Structure formats: structure tokens, C-alpha cells
């Protein structure tokens, strides 16, 4: 058997400080996302968290903010703690922990019960997400692929269109990062996908196959191992309002639409997206499967020009557009009034078993 060659440098290299900082930041972000889902957590009390060097997260006294890596402040939301600013001398782009907080903490805000849908596409600089015959591996680089896995870990459900499953046979798991797998949702109105596809068989996470309800025979419940969900059809496909309502009834409130272009465009056109993330790679495909496509706009003044945040991911650039659909600010009535207790936090942070998975 040929063993991969390990160089002396790899054997003796200690973890770089930036890698450790990023791993700690990610543990804190996962904890924030879990707390945000926890209905018994009171939002009107400050909360302070810190992460050990091994990534284990625990609460600290909010009065001692200098010891905290991450803070919940009732009127400001999640904020990096003072300890996270220890490396303030770092240039922002050089500080991966701060960059992770900037990108992901806005996605960890607590929900008063409404659905939030975020979509992502990785496209070439000329606007294509795949070649004409469907080759999309890979348009964007490693950092953006890792970002996709992180987005899955922060979401309740990850959703794709039938053509993406037909072309890629994806798994849609979080295997590159620490964090839970989301429920997988496939929009296949005509049930054209074979039940042999990975998603319908691998058991890695629950999977829902959503189709036109007329395509489900009486008593039929599964497609492979996936659960069949019948939805009403409207003029341009499945009724997205009915889809999101069905997902919400199952407690799936953070939905990550991971492509392809047709699926993302339909959510965008229906006004269902709270954010649209487009990662642009320094690649020219020339022609192929397009990213976002909407009906023509005659005047530029009418074009969509949302507020944007920009993140560098290796050679790619991620545009994170704020669209705002379905994300009402928490109202005082919606905020649970229970008192924060340490158990709530302890249940939300990561267990040792989970942490050991990334080492
Ligand atoms: N670079 C990236 O970020 C990225 C991400 C994902 C996929 N891809 C690539 O992109 C290609 C697939 O993208 P695509 O735009 O061609 O197709 P797609 O969005 O994956 O799938 C489109 C199909 O899904 C179904 N669908 C989607 N939304 C629906 C709705 N609201 N109602 C009913 N049905 C709906 C329809 O199926 P029917 O046709 O049966 O009606 C529709 O034609 C593949 O080559 C894949 O490899 C790239």
C-alpha cells in the first residue's frame, strides 16, 4: 500500500494561531445559532460566552466582558466580545475569527417564529453556474465550498431543485465542518428523479421530496427513504408559500436554497428571499447554465440594487445581498420572558463528542 508522503514540516507544524482562532469562532457561532433556536432563552438579558482553546463553549458572567469572546446584547444582538478583539492589531482581512463573526452572526439572530430563506449561487464572472451540459464541479474554490457547508450547518433545511440532483447527485451534508446536517429538501414537481439518488438513500439526514400532489398515489409516503410531500401547483411551479408553510409546521424555519439558478430565481422572483449570496469566481465559462434570471427590466432604476456586504473567499468574492423578506424584527410580545439560566446555555453549546469530530 502506498502511503501519502508526510513531510517533516507537516509533522512538526503546530496549529497556526489563525486556525485555532477560526475554529473557536466557529464553535461560538454554532452555539449562537442553537441558542437562537431555543424558545426558552430570554433575549432581554445580556449573555456572554467564551471558547476554550479546544473550542468548548461556556457561559461567563456578562459583567466581566473582557473575558468574553461573544456577547448577546438585548438591543444590539450578537457582538464579538472584548477577548475576541485581543488581536485588534490584525488587519480585518487577516483576522479569520472576526471575518467569520461578521459573515455568520447576522444569520444567528433569534426568530419570533417566521421563516427565513437564504439562497446562494457560485458563478463565473460572466454569470454562469455550470457548463451547458451541467458540469459545475467546481465553479468556486475551496473556501466557498467550506462556506456552503457552514451555511448548511446553520440552517434547518437545505433545498435544491431537481436539475441539481440530476446533474450532481449531491449529499448536501456538513462533512467539511463541525455542525449538524440540515434536513434536505428537493423540489421535483414531476418526480423525475430516480429513488436511487444519494439523497434518497444515504440516511445521512432526513430528506423531503416535494412534488405536485397529483403525482402521489393514494397511500404512497416515500421515495427511496425520502418522505414525499405533495404541494399545490401554481402557474410557475409549486406553490412556494405552501412549501414554506409546510416546512415551518415541521419547525424548519431557516431554509438555505443552494441552487441551481432556476430554483434560486423562482424564490427571488416570488419575493421569498431574505438574503441572496452570490460568490463570483475568476473564471469565464462563456456560455452555460445561468445564475439568476428574472423577467426583463426596462429601466435600470427599477433593477434590484440591494444593500450588500462583500467577503473575500480565497480567489472568489462573495456578495451577500440583504433582501429582507420574511425577517420581522423581534417584537417585545414575541420575546419569551423566561429568565436565562445556565442550563439553557449549556444545552446549546457543543458537546465534547461533537467537538472531537473536527479533530
Ligand atoms: N454553481 C452553483 O452554485 C450551483 C449550485 C447548484 C447547482 N449547480 C448546477 O446548476 C445546474 C442546475 O441548475 P438549474 O438552474 O438548471 O436547475 P435547478 O434549479 O437545480 O432545478 C430546476 C428544476 O427544479 C424544479 N423546481 C425548482 N423550483 C421549482 C418551483 N418553484 N416549482 C416547481 N419546480 C421547481 C423544476 O423541475 P422540473 O424541470 O421537473 O419542473 C426545475 O426545472 C446543474 O448543472 C448543477 O450542477 C450549480
From TrEMBL:
Keyword Kinase found: no
A GO BP annotation: riboflavin biosynthetic process
Superkingdom of origin organism: Bacteria
Gene3D superfamilies the record matches: Dihydrofolate Reductase, subunit A (3.40.430.10)
Domain Bacterial bifunctional deaminase-reductase C-terminal: start-end pairs: 117-292
Record Pfam families: RibD_C
Keyword vocabulary terms for this entry: NADP, Oxidoreductase
Metabolic or biological pathway: Cofactor biosynthesis; riboflavin biosynthesis
GO MF term set: 5-amino-6-(5-phosphoribosylamino)uracil reductase activity
PANTHER family on file: 2,5-DIAMINO-6-RIBOSYLAMINO-4(3H)-PYRIMIDINONE 5'-PHOSPHATE REDUCTASE (PTHR38011:SF7), DIHYDROFOLATE REDUCTASE FAMILY PROTEIN (AFU_ORTHOLOGUE AFUA_8G06820) (PTHR38011)
Protein name: Riboflavin-specific deaminase C-terminal domain-containing protein
